Amino acid sequence: MAFDATLTLEHGYAASACARHASALALGDLLFAKGDRHLTVEELHDEAVTAGVPVSLATVYNTLHQFTEGWPDPRAGR
To answer: Model-level pTM?
Structure first.
């Protein structure tokens, strides 16, 4: 999976929100791409870094927390 980070700080808040949403979708793709499995947050973070997704460990924690609350649904909007 390749991650295209084309947003810059010049675009301000909208770019930041888009980048967060893109990261969440990329993490969802990584999480569900290999079927039903169990991962630690650290393992998912390692997979994201290997796939070129620019996320911190805190971002992975926060995104997984958002998934448990129903947003963003990583399988929606395809």
So the answer is: 0.65
Q: What is the identity of the amino acid at 19?
A: A
Residue 48, both tokens: 């994201």
Question: What is the residue whose two structure tokens read 């888009």?
Answer: 18
CA–CA gap between residue 72 and residue 29 (Å, rounded): 12
How far is residue 21's CA from residue 27's CA, in Å, rounded to a whole number?
Answer: 10
Structure tokens that stand for 41 in this block: 């947050």
CA distances from 64 to 7, 11, 14, 28 (A): 23, 26, 22, 9
As given in the structure block, the two tokens for residue 21 are 């949403």
Residues 11-31: tens digit of each pLDDT: 454 445 566 677 888 898 898
